Amino acid sequence: MKKASVLIVLFVFPLVAYLFFASGVNNFGRLPILTQNIPELDNFEGGARLNNKITILGFLGNNIDYKKGNAFNLNQKIYKRFGKFTDFQIVMVVPEGEEENVEVLRKDLGKLSETDRWNFVYGSEGDVKSLFKSLETNLTLDEDLGTSYVFIVDKDRNLRGRTDDEDEGTKYGFNTTSVADLNNKMEDDVKIILAEYRLSLKKNNADRSN
């Protein structure tokens, strides 16, 4: 009996663990696409593009002082961790006329970290609303054309999120007011999409070398 128990511990348990984690990789190795073909930022001033970038997309609105805390949370919990990745960027959509307030925010963020991959784009009220509507989420913009939620957009301009979130079911965005949401969910999902692209790149490189 003792020998049998030892054999189970040495051989069966590792096999079960392997199958469990292998299954997890297959099921959770990709972040689900929730909305396809989000428009490029052609109607916005500022120079940022969504194509070929992993983008954290946010809407600051025209009350930027009110959203500063959200920006700081995003900077500390997400940007500082992933901002060094070449294809990663943050794009904040702002109504026209807020350029000076944005520069103040950029300087404040610069006291916490470099801001090379923080981008701000400016558009009309109609353009801001149209871009947000194109995400096709269950969320809404505030009266000031802003929201505390940010969204993960992949290199092909698809909105990524969760279809089986334990709290929300379908999870379109991440609440920058909630450090827990950023720490416990958004950080994991950004890791997944970055790993997805790294694996894809390695596969392409391996195919070329064969």
Automatic annotation (TrEMBL):
SUPFAM superfamilies: Thioredoxin-like. Gene3D superfamilies: Glutaredoxin. InterPro entries: Thioredoxin-like_sf (IPR036249). This is Membrane or secreted protein. It comes from Flagellimonas algicola.
